[in-house]
């Protein structure tokens, strides 16, 4: 888990550093891009969590019906 978290953090902070160098003094554009990326990642994470919850609920319901 630590390796995966380290790689994910390196990618995220690397992307932020790259955007900082790329956009330099245009802070508003950089903030907008980071905000958009954060919102997108949050929405994807929420969808994944909802799918996992739905699958677990469905499997438990199906298992209980078979008993």
Brief sketch in words of this structure:
The protein has 67 residues and is mainly α.
Number of strand segments: 0
In sequence order, what are the helices and strands, one letter per element? HH
Helix percentage: over 70%
Largest sheet: none
The structural class is: mainly alpha
Strand content: under 5%
Detailed description of the structure:
This protein is mainly alpha-helical and 67 residues long. Helix content is 93%, strand content 0%. It is built from two helices and no strands. The protein has helices at 2-23, 27-66. Helix 1 (2-23) runs antiparallel to helix 2. The longest helix is centred in the C-terminal third of the chain and has 40 residues, at 27-66. The model has no long low-confidence stretch (mean pLDDT 90).
Set down the secondary structure blueprint:
Blueprint: H1 2-23, H2 27-66
Features:
mainly alpha, single chain, elongated, 67 residues
């Amino acid at each position: 888990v630590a390796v995966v978290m380290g790689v994910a953090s390196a990618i995220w902070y690397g992307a932020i550093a790259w955007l900082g160098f790329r956009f330099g003094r245009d802070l508003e554009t950089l903030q907008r891009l980071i905000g958009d990326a954060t919102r997108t990642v949050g929405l994807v994470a929420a969808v994944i969590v909802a799918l996992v919850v739905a699958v677990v609920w469905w499997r438990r319901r199906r298992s209980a019906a078979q008993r």
